[in-house]
Write a structure and sequence with these properties.
alpha/beta; Rossmann fold; 3 domains; six-stranded parallel sheet; five-stranded parallel sheet; 27 helices; 12% strand; elongated
Length: 659
């Protein structure tokens, strides 16, 4: 059997495995895997540098299936390549408890680099991975940490706006380590793409600063030539437009939208096997020749891996300081006294929490070498620049400050990619109202349980004069509603420092820090307060008189001083004031802690300059919510506080009427 014949047999193996997995599940997308099987064959058997026995090897190439609906493609490749993905895994595609979910899910199977469901997200994740790779190379050397980020994307990926944002920044940064294949099959769910998509994709990407190449998706020499040309281009990301046929091999359904998202059907699957000269009496069959090809490839890859390890060990001995720094990156080093250091860095005087956060960020930059981040063109307002550290720029990846441009959606996807790559502790910042643009990427970070940090400033109607378009009202409720997402809205420097400490130590989900534009007034705490109380999500700011409170007033952020002022005006009542910087963290505390803080028979008042969705789920006792029932308005923030009822006297009056 010639090499060409063997590679064609391999591609057909992938086609049939994909079609059979979808058919057995009676659900899924067989068309894309069948169409791109030849491209995947050449990439995985000849170019992709990885080690199935060490899937987390830092210097591996990454493969992202951005067109995640075609997940049987990557599952078939992982099985054939020798990853922990069995035939039984392929047979249980899309079933309850299966590791082979309908779309690739990070953490379910080794070799799946990211969760790609919503189209365009994998495209952006790959850009983040490419940035992280460049940053690793800049810190520790090209020879050991120079790798490629490969991806397969489709028409849907390129129609979604997030890919435009990510492609733009990839071109600007000259990310020559990106090699993406565009599955140009001309079909989407509703039919042929000319219904809606008539742009010249090649010219578009050339205008972004990408190298654009073309290859027939079934001409192996063209595919190889394109990959080699992409690898030789060091200053431009590459898009290889592979003209393909969706459902290739299916005699009656190829090049139709029916094969995009539905099983072939038993009769058509049989016809496809006959059309490809495949044994019709075998299911989930891997020919011996194909198994030997992948076994041989795995041996080659293991040799490469061992050679890399030899060089890596030599490097560690020759440069122990760099090796120690490398270990800090990989092990996500944090100093033991982190909380004390951050508390010492924050000013005692009251201020806007975005300003207080800035002081904390400067200290983190000194203490945590792998701490990086930036803003969506708003660093002067979000106060997130790390002073004294360089910015990441084309050809300059040793920096710590990142400029995302006005690209919140792309920023979110890139942050996920940087975090997934490993080694870095990354944050991104923008105004809180623009978290709307990032919600899909925050949700995916929560699904993947990866510790991305978001800094959202200008946190309420008290943004003031910019008016309701820039005043977040429903956004706290929206972020808090995402499972496995933690929100902190601190009220002063101590809470801000501790919120940052929590975010840095948190390992299994994203953390959002919600910070004020305006100065937050000072308030007094009881003498027995400990900063570590903040890490419980809620704590007593000022205790009631006597053994038991008549009333508890709780608040977050800038409304904590309002609660303290209201208490002074309710002198005939025994009032406890509680700060709740993080509802999610508080809800995870023990029942005893929660009941001690909020006795079940004591009425509770919650103040927050936002919609009050979700507070009724936190408290089952008698509850008064003082929040927003409308959008904000344009005007000075102190005027808005009075007009919308967020002064101590107004809160006290409402409480009196309620009681």
């Amino acid at each position: 059997m010639t090499d060409t014949e063997l590679k064609k047999l391999t591609a057909n193996t992938i086609r049939i495995l994909a079609a059979e997995g979808v058919q057995k599940a009676n659900s899924g997308h067989p068309g894309m895997p069948m169409g791109m099987a030849d491209v995947a064959t050449i990439l995985w058997t000849e170019f992709l540098n990885h080690n199935p026995d060490d899937p987390q090897w830092i210097s591996r190439d990454r493969f992202v299936l951005s067109a995640g609906h075609g997940s049987m493609l990557i599952y078939s490749l992982l099985h054939l390549s020798g990853y922990d993905c069995s035939i039984d895994d392929l047979k249980s595609f899309r079933q309850w408890g299966s590791r082979t979910a309908g779309h690739p899910e990070y953490g379910h199977l080794p070799g799946v680099e990211t969760t790609t469901g919503p189209l365009g997200q994998g495209f952006g994740n790959g850009v983040g991975m490419a940035i992280a790779s460049k940053m690793f190379s800049a810190r520790f050397g090209d020879k050991l940490f120079d790798n490629y980020i490969y991806a397969i994307c489709g028409d849907g990926d390129l129609m979604e706006g997030v890919s435009s944002e990510a492609a733009s920044i990839a071109g600007h940064l000259k990310l020559g380590n990106i090699i993406y294949f565009y599955d140009d099959n001309g079909i989407t769910i509703e039919g042929h793409t000319d219904l809606t998509f008539s742009e010249d994709v090649g010219k578009r990407f050339e205008s972004y600063g990408w190298q654009v190449l073309r290859a027939d998706a079934y001409n192996h020499d063209e595919i190889r030539k394109a990959i080699l040309s992409a690898q030789n281009e060091k200053e431009k990301p590459t898009l290889i437009i592979t003209k393909s046929v969706i459902g290739f091999g299916s005699p009656n359904k190829f090049n139709t939208h029916e094969v995009h998202g539905s099983p072939l059907g038993k009769d058509e699957l049989l016809a496809t096997k006959k059309n490809l000269n495949w044994p019709v009496d075998k299911e989930f069959y891997v020919p011996d020749e194909v198994a030997k090809l992948f076994a041989s490839r795995k041996s080659e890859l293991k040799k490469n891996y061992n050679e890399w390890n030899d060089e890596f060990n030599k490097w560690k001995k020759s440069d122990p300081d760099k090796a120690e720094l490398f270990n800090k990156y990989i092990n996500q080093y944090l100093p033991d006294n982190l909380e004390d250091e951050l508390l010492a860095a924050v000013p005692k005087e009251p201020n806007a929490t975005r300003t207080l956060s800035s002081k904390v960020i400067q200290k983190i930059a000194q203490l945590v070498p792998n701490f990086i981040g930036g803003s969506a063109d708003l660093a002067p307002s979000t106060n997130t620049m790390m002073n004294g550290f360089a910015s990441v720029a084309p050809g300059k990846f040793e920096g710590r400050n990142f400029h995302f441009g006005i690209r919140e959606h792309g920023m979110g996807a890139i942050l996920n990619g940087i975090t997934l790559y490993g080694g870095f502790k990354a944050f991104g910042a923008t105004f809180f109202v623009f978290s709307d643009y990032m919600r899909p990427t925050i949700r995916l970070a929560a699904i993947m349980q990866i510790p991305v940090i978001y800094v959202f400033t200008h946190d309420s109607i008290f943004v003031g004069e910019d008016g309701p378009t820039h005043q977040p009202v429903e956004h706290l409720a929206a972020l808090r509603s995402i499972p496995n997402s933690t929100v902190f809205r601190p009220a002063d420097g101590i809470e801000t420092a501790m919120a940052w400490a929590f975010a840095l130590r948190h390992k299994d989900g994203p953390v959002s820090l919600i910070l004020s534009r305006q100065k937050i007034e000072e308030y007094e705490r009881d003498n027995n307060f400990k900063p570590s109380d903040v890490l419980k999500g809620a704590y007593i700011v000022s205790k009631e008189n006597g053994n038991k409170p008549d009333l508890i007033i709780a608040a977050s952020g800038s409304e904590v001083p309002v609660a303290a002022d209201a208490k002074k005006l309710l002198a005939d009542l025994s009032v406890r004031v509680v700060s709740i910087p993080s509802r999610e963290v508080f809800n995870k505390q023990s029942s005893d802690y929660k009941d001690n803080l909020f006795p079940p028979d004591v009425p509770v008042v919650v103040i927050e300059a936002a919609t009050m969705t979700g507070w009724g789920d936190t408290f089952r006792q008698k509850l008064l919510c003082i929040g927003m029932e409308s959008f904000g308005a344009s005007g000075p923030y102190k005027t808005l506080a009075e007009k919308f009822g967020f002064t101590g006297s107004q809160v006290a009056d409402k409480i009196k009427k309620w009681l």
